[in-house]
Design brief:
Elements: H1 2-20, H2 33-43, H3 56-71, E1 75-76, E2 84-94, E3 100-105, E4 108-112, E5 118-119, E6 128-137, E7 143-144, E8 149-150, E9 161-165, H4 174-181, H5 184-190, E10 195-200, H6 202-207, H7 210-215, E11 221-224, E12 240-245, H8 260-268, E13 276-302, E14 313-319, H9 339-358, E15 366-372, H10 380-387, E16 396-402, E17 413-417, H11 424-433, E18 438-440, H12 456-460, E19 465-470, H13 481-491, H14 506-525
Parallel strand pairs: 6-9, 9-10, 10-12, 14-15, 14-16, 16-19, 17-18
Antiparallel strand pairs: 1-13, 2-11, 2-13, 3-4, 3-13, 5-12, 6-13, 7-8, 13-15, 17-19
Helix pairs in contact: 1-2, 2-9, 2-14, 9-14, 11-14
């Protein structure tokens, strides 16, 4: 019955198409709740088995999206005249029992236990790593001229292993702090370090226990490959890394001028500990095995109508992949269908594409629709696209990202991560206001969501971007949208229960789609391209 149900969803989608295709273009197009439902039910059906990157299920989903693009008359924007941008990936596994850390303090040698005292992951570049070097503590390991931070000041880390604290200072703004935190490897590598040891602090233990991190040690890491076959590993000189429990880290500070307990106390008081040589050496060893797989982005373009502005692009993104099939034998249902995450976002993007394609007038700028792969593996499909774009990167004026709109309540507001950094904030507010929806501030700044979805690779390339999400206010009296949102994350996020039988509000999906369409229309037709606000941290970042 599930197979019949999913095929009926596909036929329903095509049936909706058949009713509208060939009809005169309407002057006012509206989103169709039945089309949204049909797309979502097919993409989140059991037969697609969770759409894991590189899986048959994801390939079927990609074909479905490409077929929709073709049916709408959108031009292929992948490679070689197709809708597909095929990406080669390297999947890396840590070889069992190969990880080792030994610390040398004079005549004393101490071996740490894996995975109780430390954990590490595979290396995507090499198969065998063996690095021995002096240790240098570098505080949080951050550098920012804008915030007056240089944790490497006065320290020589060339050919050294740097030891750093997890996290970042509390005084940093959420989005800017998350961006800097994601650049720690870059800061270390640029200064000549050959390895990184990150300390799991007592503060971090309260948020995410060390043993939880250790549970995921068997999971492979994935990197995309350049067309020449090289893995996307920017800093090959960093040949070793490890994550150490704070109790085991005491061994690293045996000769330190400041005790580890005092450093943790400084952190609790909001101070940023200063760095120093640790006066001992460590040897980090591991072996990795590699295998190759491939998975496509799916891209299409609606050409703009203006002779000049048609060479500029508004890019919509939504990730098509999910996390596949779970191996938890305690569960009866093993398929992570990913209905909300992110069949909902892809469905909204497909319906947005239909609205653009069937509108009476084409927008002045061209509009690209990009269903990306491997978001769940680290934003890899979007990152590959921004490194190997199928249109000139400097001609992409904005990115509008759709990731997991929680369409489980009749939302009264939206949140647009990134809207405070560029003129896109005004665009989103104007678009939402047309439908009586308010634009709210980020209700979860501590989560730093701005750096955790597919718009972020565009931001790192200097392209203004917004990530649209349902807000926490409901139009329904007595309903708390924030509670509904939180309940989804607590009970269904990245679980088999994220499936089409959730009480999905397709009427709310219509409103969300209408806003999404209005945002793109505004960007595509305005005279000036979106720009970073002068005071934004991201206006000057590389």
């Amino acid at each position: 019955m599930r197979f019949i149900h999913s095929i009926s969803a596909l036929m329903l989608a095509l049936g909706v198409a058949a009713c509208t295709e060939g009809a005169p273009a309407a002057h006012h197009v509206t989103a169709d709740p039945i089309a949204l439902q049909a797309h979502l039910e097919f993409l989140a059906s059991d037969e697609l088995e969770g759409r894991d990157t590189g899986s048959r299920g994801h390939e079927i989903a990609a074909q479905y999206v490409a077929t929709e693009f073709k049916r709408l008359g959108l031009e292929p924007a992948g490679d070689n005249g197709t809708y597909f941008q095929r990406i080669q990936f390297r999947r890396s596994h840590l070889v069992e029992n190969s990880a080792a850390i030994t610390i040398t303090n004079g005549d004393e040698t101490i071996a740490l236990q894996y995975p109780k005292q430390f954990i590490t992951g595979p290396n995507a570049y090499s198969e065998h790593d063996d690095v021995e070097a002096p240790l240098v503590f570098v505080g949080y390991g951050l550098v920012s001229e804008a915030f007056g931070i240089n944790d490497y000041q006065g320290l020589d880390v060339t050919d050294k292993i740097v030891v750093m604290l997890t996290g970042r200072p509390e005084h940093l703004p959420s989005e800017e702090g998350a961006h800097l935190n994601s650049s720690k490897t870059k800061f270390a590598a640029e200064r000549g370090a050959v390895g990184i040891i990150t300390l799991h602090t007592p503060a971090r233990e309260k948020v995410r226990p060390f043993e939880v991190n250790a549970m995921y040690q068997r999971a492979p890491s994935v990197r995309w490959l350049h067309p020449n076959g090289e893995p996307n590993v920017a800093y090959k000189n960093l040949a070793a890394s490890a994550y150490i429990h704070h109790e085991a880290a005491e061994h690293l500070f045996a000769n330190a001028p400041v005790s580890l307990a005092d450093i943790f106390a400084q952190m609790e008081q909001g101070e940023s500990p200063r760095g120093f040589d640790l006066g001992l050496t460590a040897r980090l060893q591991r072996s990795s095995k590699h295998e190759q797989m491939s998975s496509p982005n799916v891209a299409a373009v609606l050409p703009g109508s203006d002779a000049k502005l048609a060479n500029e692009y508004v890019v919509y993104t939504a990730h098509l992949d999910h996390i596949g099939v779970t191996k938890d034998l305690s569960q009866d249902d093993h398929i992570n269908n990913g209905a909300i995450d992110n069949a909902s976002g892809v469905s909204v993007m497909l319906e947005t594409a239909r609205m653009f394609a069937q509108a009476a007038e084409r927008p002045k700028r061209s509009v690209m629709f990009l269903a990306v792969t491997a978001e769940e593996r680290g934003l890899l499909g979007a990152d590959y696209f921004t490194h190997h774009p199928t249109v000139p990167i400097q001609q992409i004026v904005a990115n509008v990202n759709l990731d997991m709109p929680v369409l489980l309540y009749d939302f009264a507001d939206v949140i647009a991560f990134g809207s405070t950094h560029s003129t896109l904030g005004e665009t989103v507010a104007k678009a939402a206001g047309q439908f009586g929806i308010e634009l709210s501030e980020d209700p979860m700044p501590e989560q730093a969501i701005f750096t955790r979805s597919d718009h972020y690779p565009f931001v790192k390339k200097g392209i203004p971007a917004v990530f649209l999400m349902t807000g926490f206010t409901s139009k329904t009296e007595g309903e708390d949208g924030g509670e509904v949102w939180a309940k989804f994350f607590a009970e269904h996020y990245h679980r088999p229960s994220d499936q089409p039988d959730l009480p999905i509000r397709y009427d709310a999906g219509v409103t969300f789609t209408q806003i999404n369409y209005a945002i793109g229309q505004e960007i595509a037709n305005q005279v000036e391209r979106p720009r970073w606000l002068p005071e934004s941290f991201f206006a000057t970042q590389d």
